[in-house]
Amino acid sequence: MSESAKALKLRPVVDSEMDADTAWLRASVEAFEPRLRELERRGDEDFGPGAWPAERRPDLGCGWGCGCCPPRLGGRRYLDLDRGRLRRLDPAGLARRLAATAQRGEAIVLGAAVDPYGGDAAYRAATRRLLAACRDLDGAELAITTASPLVLCDLDLLVELDRTSSLSVELVVPTADPALARRLEPASAPPAERLGALAEIAAQGIAARLRIAPLLPGINAGEMTLRPLVDAARRAGAVDVAASPLRLGWRARRRFLAWLAVEEPELVPRYRALYRFRRRLPAAEHHALLADFHRLRLEHGFPHGIASRG
Question: What is the reported pTM?
């Protein structure tokens, strides 16, 4: 038997106490281990339809541990500057790389894969260095997604960039309830601080957006949870709101289910069924989960217009 055939042959699971999900996960990892190791080396967890090419994912460091970061620009290409290459580039080299990206019409995205304000001081310094290098670009498209109010530390740069570039800043908040937020994201800032940052950014005339993520069935996806956030986004002056259901990758599956067993044990069977053999919700459940959000978004008149820079 060839090595590839051996790799694809499922090994029997002999642990009688192992639940079905764990048995399937073990068999899958063993069967496709060569492919998984390749993806791990590339840093690409998503290898299904619509997945991000690994070489296009920015990585400036993240401390929140979220497993729900959907692509913001669909299949469009955008600049990749991971923290290693960013530190190796001299200022002139970074400027050339950014200018070439802008000239090709590609977007410069911070936060599509990890939070640019979620790491330590060195990561945040790398983020500021990148933003500073963008000041010389004219007409570039720049998008930032973060779950941290520390984005306000760079507000001076954002105001400068907004004068010459197409800039948007997106704050991620899963709920307006501080107790629930602490359970969902114990290391991140309270919702009020993030919504305050959204308001301060919008007050400068910058296109500010709110993303409600991750949406968790039975936890934060109902109208009682969503309405306060959509209301807050409107009061803050956000131009739009978005929502992203939980995407449960194979690496995060065991950790998430362990968390769920402690926080919401009655929901464990439901999540096992919803995410069985898949990373995303089935289409019918996906649309049903977002129904309340879409209604609230339209009710509040999103998206809102923004004054022209011309």
Answer: 0.73
